[in-house]
């Protein structure tokens, strides 16, 4: 399932893994030092709660969403009855970049439309409890919609970032990924990437590989080729121009790398896309 980012930079497809969907109803609440291996997104449907992480405390009222990073202990307490709609989830690009690394959403976001969010959550909850043949598709679709509503609310409130108290394990590498995405047409070196986070190039390669499974230059190559693929789908620019836009040198180099990665030439891929579009339009007539 493909989505557009909030900025002009595209990060390809989202991979969605939903690990838990539940409602938490309580008379009082006192959860201390809770740890999850994935992001916990918790909507305060009813009530008011105090959440604390690394000594930083936030008061969350109805319509607020708490965002708890993986492997980071958090506490929640409430003296009055309440109801939370919560999920444990991992959403990543095909480069293993986490959605909430890509967007440094603040710890608590007040929803623009809490009722609409709850409606989508209830659809997600039904899919979670059901056994439809298309359960995974429904879960991914609803989870991405919830995420979009959360991001839209965050943007409307000024895109305030989260503090250092809530930094996830690999947040420090995101400036490199953002730099690569924003400067894809440039000739980028390992040294230039390492400068973004003030690290030695060899250490960066090892640590980055541990985080994402590939080194920075390998990720850059993937990002460039995927951008070329998307441009082939949506523009009529010549191959030489696409190569320059994607930082892939010239048409010959782009052609070789495209075949190596996708198993066909750019021309063949574009022909396949045009054929599919033509057939789709014919079916609609």
Gist of the model:
By secondary structure, this protein is an alpha+beta fold. The protein has 2 domains: 14-166, Regulatory protein AraC (Jelly Rolls), CATH 2.60.120; 171-276, Arc Repressor Mutant, subunit A (Orthogonal Bundle), CATH 1.10.10.
Question: Could you list some keywords that capture this structure?
Answer:
five-stranded antiparallel sheet; single chain; 2 domains; alpha+beta; four-stranded antiparallel sheet; 285 residues; 10 helices; 45% helix; Arc Repressor Mutant, subunit A; disordered N terminus; globular; 9 strands; Jelly Rolls
Write up this protein:
With 285 residues, this protein is an alpha+beta fold. The chain folds into two domains: 14-166, Regulatory protein AraC (Jelly Rolls), CATH 2.60.120.280; 171-276, Homeodomain-like (Arc Repressor Mutant, subunit A), CATH 1.10.10. Helices cover 45% and strands 22% of the residues. The protein is built from ten helices and nine strands. The protein has helices at 99-102, 114-129, 135-156, 174-182, 190-197, 201-212, 216-234, 239-245, 251-262, 266-284, and strands spanning 14-26, 29-34, 39-46, 49-53, 56-60, 64-68, 74-78, 82-93, 108-110. It has a five-stranded antiparallel sheet, covered by helices on one side. The protein has a four-stranded antiparallel sheet with strand order 2-7-4-5, with no helix packed on it. Strand 4 and strand 5 form a beta hairpin. Helix 4 packs parallel to helix 7 and helix 8 packs across helix 9 (251-262). The longest helix has 22 residues, at 135-156. The two termini are 26 Å apart. Mean pLDDT is 88; it is low at 1-11.
């Amino acid at each position: 399932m493909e989505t557009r980012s909030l900025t002009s930079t595209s990060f390809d497809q989202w991979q969605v893994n939903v690990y838990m969907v539940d409602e938490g109803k309580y008379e009082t609440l006192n959860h201390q030092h809770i740890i999850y291996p994935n992001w916990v997104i918790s909507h305060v449907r009813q009530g008011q709660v105090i959440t604390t992480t690394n000594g930083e405390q936030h008061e969350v009222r109805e319509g607020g969403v708490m965002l708890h990073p993986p492997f980071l202990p958090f506490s929640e307490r409430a003296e009055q009855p309440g109801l939370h709609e919560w999920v444990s989830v991992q959403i990543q690009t095909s480069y293993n970049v986490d959605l909430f690394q890509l967007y440094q959403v603040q710890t608590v976001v007040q929803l623009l439309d809490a009722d609409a969010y709850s409606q989508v959550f209830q659809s997600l909850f039904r899919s979670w409890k059901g056994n439809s043949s298309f359960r995974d598709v429904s879960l991914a679709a609803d989870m991405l919609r919830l995420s979009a509503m959360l991001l839209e609310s965050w943007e409307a409130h000024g895109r305030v970032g989260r503090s250092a108290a809530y930094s996830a394990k690999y947040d420090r590498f995101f400036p490199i990924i953002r730099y690569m995405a924003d400067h894809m047409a440039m000739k980028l070196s390992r040294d230039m990437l390492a400068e973004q986070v003030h690290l030695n190039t060899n250490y960066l390669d090892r640590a980055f590989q541990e985080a994402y499974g590939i080194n920075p230059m390998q990720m850059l190559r993937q990002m460039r080729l995927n951008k070329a693929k998307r441009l082939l789908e949506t523009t009529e620019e010549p191959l030489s121009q696409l190569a320059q836009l994607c930082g892939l040198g010239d048409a010959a180099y782009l052609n070789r790398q495209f075949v190596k990665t996708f198993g066909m030439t750019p021309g063949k891929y574009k022909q396949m896309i045009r054929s599919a579009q033509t057939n789709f339009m014919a079916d609609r007539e």
